[in-house]
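Weekly structure sync, notes
Attendees: PL, DS, HV (note-taker this week)

Item 1: Mpv17-like protein 2
DS walked through the input record. Source organism listed as Octopus bimaculoides. Sequence as pasted into the shared doc:
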Amino acid sequence: MQMSSLLESRTLVGKNNSHTGPPRLYRECWRRFACTGLAKGQTTAKLDFETMTVFVGARKRIYHKVVSGVQLLFSRKYLLLTNTAISITSAAGGDSVQQFYELSIQRQQTWNKDRTLHISITGLILGPPSHYWYHLIDYLFPGSSVRVVAKKLLFDQTIGTPIGIFLFLSSLGILENSSFDKMLTEYKNCGKTLLLSEWLIWPPVQVINFAFIPLKFRVLFDNSVSFGFDIYYSYIKYRTDKVSD
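Item 1 (cont.): predicted structure, written out as tokens:
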């Protein structure tokens, strides 16, 4: 009886892996072994040790594959590509959320695909500089003491932030074939708003980033927090365009 239950459980492994996945498999195998035990008059049903070993082994293999994949993506060989992909995803996601909101309140009637494409390209453009920027900061100011973190923060906010906003607005201006006068107007109006917002919100985030986050994960942490800023960037940029139009 126990052998037949084991064979049934292995059959379930093949079926469930292709459809419903491990959770249903565990419940079904537990039910079958429990019923087997109760049919024998046992007060406590026992799961077959070999079957449980298969389950635990499968979960460990999945875990190790995930860990190995993350380590590969954030290895020195692929870190630039990973950080660039993160930047593109964050930029596109931020604009998508903003457009969903604008559609929901009927501020716009149709999805602007060109706008999302242009924002995504800015993520592609800004991804590599962000990657090398954090490496440069660590090269210039090695360590994570309070004084060093303060230097990194000052350097980042006074030099990196204005450059980042300039690249963002310039990239969009070129992609959208904006005139030079319009780009200058956006630098003065939109750029000023974005810069003040960055200086208000970003310093505490960067203190955490420089003090506690390993170098290879800093762009990921930066983009995770700045996802809200990507939404805000999209809002400010295209709100300004509508006002000027």
